[in-house]
Amino acid sequence: MSKQQVSDLDDAARRLIEQAKGARRNAHAPYSGFAVGAAVRAAGGNLFLGCNVEISSYGLTMCAERVALFAARATGATEFEAIAVVGPGDDGAPTPPCGACRQVIWDLAPEAVIYLATPAGEVKVRTPEQLLPDPFGPRQLARCEGASAGGSASGATGDAAVPAEDPGDAQ
Q1: Is 65 assigned a catalytic role?
Q2: Per-residue pLDDT tens for 128-167?
Q3: Which of 132, 86, 93, 125 is nearest to 110 (CA)?
Q4: How far is the C-alpha of 20 from the C-alpha of 65, rounded, in Å?
Q5: Is 3 a residue whose pLDDT tops 80?
Q6: What's the distance, CA 54 to chain centroid?
Q7: How many CA atoms lie within 13 A of 70 on its CB side?
């Protein structure tokens, strides 16, 4: 899929990008100044917004894409049609999602159309597969011997997976 302008898109895509652009204003990026907004459209049309929340310990920072997708899941949304991400851009090119966000998109929204946009209106349209070629996901986990709900991906079982007794129970 190609690079285009927001004005080239249909009304629904333009609205989604505008919502992401608005969410960007709520970003908490006091250290980097790198503000990103995201909007997710679930099946049925509900919209969920996210912005990046930067923490001084960068590992605790949450990206806009994950904030929006997690907010959607928290309300029960499970199918997603589209995701718009608006970041500061790089020499006029839209900001792509980080690796962690690409994986989350793959797991939670594998069929979504993704609009990456700049504040000036340049847009790249992508699929999750284009963002994360050769992904690791449920299919690979299903191949693990012994993998099941509650099991580990390695198929290992044993005492390490058993919760420790509550010390207050030992009397």
Answers
A1: yes
A2: 999 999 998 888 888 876 655 444 433 333 333 333 444 4
A3: 132
A4: 10
A5: no
A6: 16
A7: 11
Domains and CATH numbers, the chain: 3-133 (3.40.140.10)
Q: Which of 18, 54, 65, 129 is catalytic?
A: 65
Query: Rounded to two decimals, what is the model's pTM?
Result: 0.81
Starting at the earlier edge strand, list the strands of the sheet with 80-86.
3-5, 122-126, 113-117, 80-86, 37-42, 47-51
Q: Which residues contact 59 (CB under 8 A, 6 or more apart)?
A: none
pLDDT (average), residues 96-113: 97
The pLDDT tens digits for 10-46 are 999 999 999 999 999 999 999 999 999 999 999 999 9
DSSP-assigned states of every residue in the chain: --EEEGGGS-HHHHHHHHHHHHHHTT-B-TTT----EEEEEETTS-EEEEE-B--SSGGG-B-HHHHHHHHHHHTT---EEEEEEE---BTTBPPPPPHHHHHHHHHH-TT-EEEEE-TTSEEEEE-HHHHSSS---HHHHHTSTT--TTS-TT---SGGGSPPPPGGG--
Which amino acid makes up residue 107?
D
